[in-house]
Amino acid sequence: PDEMTDAVLSVLEEEGVKATFFLIGSKIKEQEQLVRRIVEGGHIVANHSWRHNGTFPLASAKKVGQELDWTVAEIERVTGKKPKLFRPPFGVTNPIIGRVSQSKGLVTIGWNVRSLDTVSSTPRKNVLQRIMNGIVPGSVILLHDRCEGADALLRDLIAELNKADYKIVPLDKLLDIQAYEN
Fold first, then answer.
1. Segments of the chain with pLDDT less than 50
2. pLDDT recorded at residue 102
C-alpha cells in the first residue's frame, strides 16, 4: 500500500476490474485500512517480502523464510486471509528463494509485461505503448501503485485493453491457482 493505492482502487472499482496487490509487509501496519479496502473490493493481496530490500536475492534461507513468514502473518492479521502468492522483489529468484517459498506453500509469480512505470522521466503515453506492445493473451502486467499518475495510467491502460478486445481477469483465474490458503 502506498500513496496512490487509494486512487488506483477507485479506478479499478469504476472500471469493474480486479487486480492483485503484492504487498511489502513492513508497510502494512501504516496502511491497515487501505489493505482492508483492497480485500473488500475483491482484489487479491499477496506477499512481496517484508522490506523489498535490494539484498533479498542474496539472503540466507533463514532470512528469506523470516521475510516471507512475517509478511504472511501481517497480511493474515489485517485481512484474516493467508496469502499463497509471492512475487520476489525485482522479480529475482534463485534456488534458495525457490526452495524456501515452495516449502512455505507459496506460489511464486512473475510477469511477462514490465511497464517500467517506475521510471519517472518516461511519459505516460510511452509507458502505455510499451505495455501494449508486449501484450499477448494471458499476459501478466507489472504495474506499481506507488508512482505518481498510477491511476491515470491504469485508466488509460484499461481503455486500451478494452479497445483491443482483451478481457481482464484476476490472476488466480488466469493461472487457475488459489490466492489464499483454505
1. none
2. 97
Q: Which residues contact 26 (CB under 8 A, 6 or more apart)?
A: 50, 51
Distance CA(48)–CA(66), nearest Å, equals: 13
92-113 residue pLDDT tens: 999 999 999 999 999 999 999 9
b/e map of 74-93 (b: 16 or more CB within 10 Å)?
A: bbeebbebebbbbbbbeeeb
Q: Check if the beta carbon of residue 52 is closer than 8 Å to that of residue 86.
A: no
Give every CB contact of residue 9 below 8 A, 6+ residues apart in sequence. Answer: 34, 37, 38, 41, 43
SS3 category, 40: helix
Nearest 5°: CA angle at 140, between 34 and 37? 10
Cβ proximity of 27 and 52 under 8 Å: no
